Fold these 3 entries.
Entry 1:
Amino acid sequence: MNQHMQLEPIPFIDIAAQRRRLGKSIDDAVARVLDHCQFINGPEVTALEKALADYSGAKHVVSCASGTDALLMVLMAKNVGPGDAVLCPTFTFCATGEVVTLTGATPVFVDVDKETFNIDVNSLKRGIATARARGLKPVA
Ligand SMILES: Cc1ncc(COP(=O)(O)O)c(C=O)c1O
């Protein structure tokens, strides 16, 4: 590389690029929803859930408003509650533990593998033992 060459910095996150590419279709979709006023479970929601089911092969898709709601819905569907322990990775967002407490269950944090950042199996075993020692039932 020529030492006199000036390189343009590349932004780490360029939200404007997404706006340039998708802005018109997003504006049109928002306008459509504002026109028909079906803000909850309208045709766009049905279309999204169908597209996700087709893409993933899942039998059912239930969309929701946030990642937090998605995590909470899964725990509620599995009847997680008081007396249960849910093993959570330490390398995560606070919502992961927050939703466990919302069900009345207890989050038990376990380390992640330093190479993969997935839950470390040995730490998971220790977390399960710790939960049991405290009278909790490890369920998820
Ligand atoms: C790993 C993880 N779980 C859950 C959430 C919560 O998602 P939301 O902010 O949409 O509720 C986040 C948000 O960044 C996340 O990174």
Entry 2:
Amino acid sequence: MKTDVVIVGGGIAGVATAYYLSLEGIKVAVVEKDGIAMHASGYAYGGIGHLGKTGSPGINDPVARLSSQLHADLKGTLEVNTGIDIEYRTKPVLTLAFDDAEYALIKKQMTWTRDVLGIPAEAVTTAEAAELEPRINHEAVGAVISQGNTNLNPQRLTLALARAAESQGTEFIYDCVTGLIKDRTNITGVTLANGSISAGSTVLAMGPWTSNTENWLGSKIPIIPLKGQILRLRAHGSPVPASVSWGSEYATSKADGLLWTGSTEEKAGFDELPTEHARNHIFQSVRRMLPYTKSATVAMQTACIRPVTPDGALVLGPVPKWENIYLATGGARQGIMLGPGIGRVTTDLIMHGSSTVDINPLSIRRFDG
Ligand SMILES: Cc1cc2nc3c(=O)[nH]c(=O)nc-3n(C[C@H](O)[C@H](O)[C@H](O)COP(=O)(O)OP(=O)(O)OC[C@H]3O[C@@H](n4cnc5c(N)ncnc54)[C@H](O)[C@@H]3O)c2cc1C
């Protein structure tokens, strides 16, 4: 088989890249070993706030800004073009602090949100926070409320992008990529468990599995899997009107009527099995934020793995020493938020050799030495 671009990986990074390339009339093949959105892109939480848990987007910032804009555009077009509701909802975020140090930290992070991104945000007392959601834990010492945070269903988003890409001519191939086809320093396609694909350009969007390409490329690809688990709870009472968060824990009522809450950060290799230990930990955290969930029951527990680089930022762009091959991964805790930006930037690099946003800081070269 012959195509313009072959993309390895049917998660949000690969599928968003296929969407933007095929929108430009480029012939694309996506190769996926398990199924579209079968891993983190199908089982993430779906918050698409600009900031990571540190309260600052760091070197992902230009891609995060681009991606925020693209998400807003996709909200309008994807449902019309595919019939899939991606459950895009905007609501406030209520961040709780249970001691003075936590309160000082969330107020500091608030300045990024408010002063740099221009998103309305304010520090409030616990009593004021309870006006938004009376069921929060009144032992909190204070809170920050920020407006306009968006949440969506990551599985539906990834599947909608895939369906749109398919209708634009993208071909989806269910097979495992086993290596690269090389002509000196030029990458001319991939080998599969069952055949091969010749392509003008190759995109590696394999999430945490991108590290498997080290042998193919002969260089270090420092990406590790970081496991995360989520509970989808049946909780009595009305939906929570805000996304409630505390440190790296969060809870929000979703369109399926369940309260989604998580998550964990576990170094467990490529293991994606839910565990009782994580279930107990998440239950403890959500009860601390929202004590009324004491009587909630688990409708579903999910586990999946995030692709994480040593500095937690993306690896995006060409692979040094090789031609016509690109890395598109490292989304870590923000891969759904960053997905459309990853896809657009990779499309621009393939089509024009450059991108409208500065991605030099995101080059894999930063880990040399
Ligand atoms: C619990 C949890 C909650 C999260 N919540 C959020 C959130 O609220 N907001 C947010 O923005 N992000 C969130 N994330 C992060 C986000 O889910 C990930 O960063 C993102 O999904 C990564 O997408 P990806 O396409 O890079 O990788 P993946 O989704 O892992 O896709 C990679 C694909 O490549 C395929 N593949 C690998 N090797 C091969 C091969 N050799 N041949 C063919 N196919 C191959 C895999 O099968 C897989 O389908 C969360 C993650 C977790 C774990």
Entry 3:
Amino acid sequence: MVLFSGTAGTGEAPRPEYVPAAGVVKSFGYDFEYNAASGTLEIRNNGSRALFVLGTNKVFINNNARFLQKKTVLKDGQFLIPADGVDIIIVYLARKRPSWQYANGVLTLRGESTRIRDLSRQKKFGPGSRNYPYDIQVIVIDPGHGGKDPGGIGYNDIEEKDIVLEVSREIKKELQKKYRGKEIIMTRDKDVFVSLEERGEIANRIKPEKNPIFISVHANVSFKLDASGYESYFLSLTPFDEVAREVAQVENSVLNFEIEDHNEYIKEIINRIVDIEYRRESAKLAEFIQNRLNGTAGPKTKDRGVKGAFFYVLRAAKMPAVLVEIGFVTNKEEALNMQRSDYQKKLAKGITEGIGDFITTFNRTEAFTK
Ligand SMILES: [Zn+2]
């Protein structure tokens, strides 16, 4: 197809589904390295790296995982990158707006060549604006339990499901006030039962490029009736040390091609790296929330810290995810506090501010790549 640029009526080349990686690196003159054994293609420019994994929708930008809508494929000996993968290369490696066209084997950028960093100061292309790639656009609030599942039952038969729903509603209200452009999703907004799988499904329906985050709100129980305080958990499939050990093992055995199913092995490891990536972001989110709760709930209760653990609901959500235990329903004083709307507002304010810190950091570090 021939492009008559500037000729009225002909329009521009349609956005292709895929672009050959060779076309991208040749057009821009980028360094690249294809590793047939692991099926990985690394494209480098100006100290930044994009690592595509063949047959998956994962791309690592300076070791941070992002997800593409389509998988990379090998066709007729060509490594094909889906269109949104090309967007990512342009945004992170060229630091330009992802506006491009591909025709006759050549990839060209459209329009002006202003750097994104400069553009980000303008209203048109800053955090919160449409098409800004480093923004948290959706926040999922997950009030624990509900319906037939009361959660923890505490002092005076106070039920966890009621308290966490109240606090979650407050969080939603606060977030809506603070962030008009963002979508706030509740996994339940009334006293109904929602399974853990459904909660994960609700979250995973959100497009990854909207950079969603997931906050599950719970209250604690203990046989020790004087136990009190709030804690934030971040999550992953496997205990931290185990994953760290396995990744280290891989680093040490990259050249061991004697492993029978090496590609499968590498894929498995890459899955785990993704897990680590969300763990890092999740741990940050947990830390921010915990710190802010300390400020708002402060002297009335106890800071029990940030912890890593396995929770099914967090495993289910493929995004940065935390679970906040806002206090103990089994502690008389805390249970009574948690029933009061002024205290619920304090908890919600702390959690909202923590989410705000995460959003600010995400914007500033361009999705933790800087
Ligand atoms: Zn719970």
